[in-house]
Amino acid sequence: MHKTIAVISLWRNNADNIDKSLKQLDDAEKELRDSHSFIYSFFENDSKDNTSNILKIWIQNKNGFLITEVLHTQNWGSIPSKTRTKALASYRNECLRILAKNEVEYDYIFVVDSDILYETSLLKNMLEIIELNPNVGMVTPNTIQNVSDAFNKGIDSSYFDSWALIDKQGNAGLTYASNPFLLAEDRQKWDQGEHVVVKSAFGGAALIRGEIFKCNNLKWNGEKGCEHWFLCDCIRSLNYLVIASPQIIARVNQKKSKPSDSFLIQYDKARLKYIQQNENSSKKNYSNINNLIILKVLSLALKLKRFSVVIILQLINSSCSKRRHEKKFFPKRILYGSVQKGSNHKNIEAIDVPPKEYRLVSIIIKKGQVIKRDFEGPNGEVITLIGKKNA
Question: Residue 43: pLDDT above 50?
Answer without folding.
Answer: yes
